[in-house]
Amino acid sequence: MLLLPDIDCGTSRDALNCPPKRSGLFIITVILFFAWFQSIVKIMKLSEKFCVFLFLLLFTSITHATGIGSLKSFMWNAHTVRADFSQTVLDKSRRIVQTASGAMQFERPGKFRWIYEKPYEQLIVGDGERIWFYDRDLAQVTVRKLDAAIGSSPAALLAGNNDIEKNFHLLEVGLQGNIEWVEATPKTRESTFERVLLGFTLEGILRVMELHDNFGQATVFEFSGVEQNRKLPPELFKFHPPAGVDVISE
């Protein structure tokens, strides 16, 4: 079980770190909206079926989750995640220059396993303190401190703690199709990417993540088969370099 720090959601300092919740103002807004809607129905004498359709349409438009709300809910409530992914790298002209696929698992805070299966076998493991990059073809392992890797690893970003606004500025992008988008811009200049776009379904499930680097290149991850809060074996997040490989510490 993940233990979260004690937070006073009544203070302005901690308010941004609290999980999203419905406020009293939201409830009042819904009541007033319903009363207004009833008066419109009486005046216009609309049919019952059309009224139901119109109410659902209008109500959905004012109550659907925002991208930032979905992101905060994901960071707070998704303690473990398992998913398959496809990765596409695009150049400045949005032409595809590389594709890959694999599977990922993570457990907050800071533990993850990111497996590339095609076209080359690679493994990235975060044990909560360090992050290990293992390239089987090169017989090489690169080790970094986890804090230093957050700016360069999508796995480290997704598996971080719930205080995402400590490291990123968040901007609401809006609804496109059935996906709610939010943009996260790193607060530090040392990051290898200039912004991240995260897309969530209307049910709050992470579906897409785009990393845009400082050279105009974009790396797009599309997630499928997403499972949240399943118990994951602790061994997934441990890594022991195979015998005979080169280990490089950064």
TrEMBL record:
An example Gene Ontology CC term for this record: periplasmic space
Classification of source organism: Bacteria, Pseudomonadati, Pseudomonadota, Betaproteobacteria, Nitrosomonadales
Species in which this protein is naturally found: Nitrosospira multiformis
Transmembrane segments: 24-43, 50-71
Database matches in NCBIfam families: lolA (TIGR00547)
Keyword Magnesium: no
CDD domains: LolA (cd16325)
Summary of the function given for this chain in its UniProt record: Participates in the translocation of lipoproteins from the inner membrane to the outer membrane. Only forms a complex with a lipoprotein if the residue after the N-terminal Cys is not an aspartate (The Asp acts as a targeting signal to indicate that the lipoprotein should stay in the inner membrane).
Protein name: Outer-membrane lipoprotein carrier protein
Keyword Membrane: yes
Compartments reported by the entry: Periplasm
Subunit relationships: Monomer.
Record InterPro entries: LolA/LolB/LppX, OM_lipoprot_carrier_LolA-like, OM_lipoprot_carrier_LolA_Pbac
Keywords annotated in UniProt: Chaperone, Lipoprotein, Membrane, Periplasm, Protein transport, Signal, Transmembrane, Transmembrane helix, Transport
GO biological process: lipoprotein localization to outer membrane; lipoprotein transport
Main location: periplasm
Lineage top rank: taxon: Bacteria
Family as reported in the entry's similarity comment: Belongs to the LolA family.
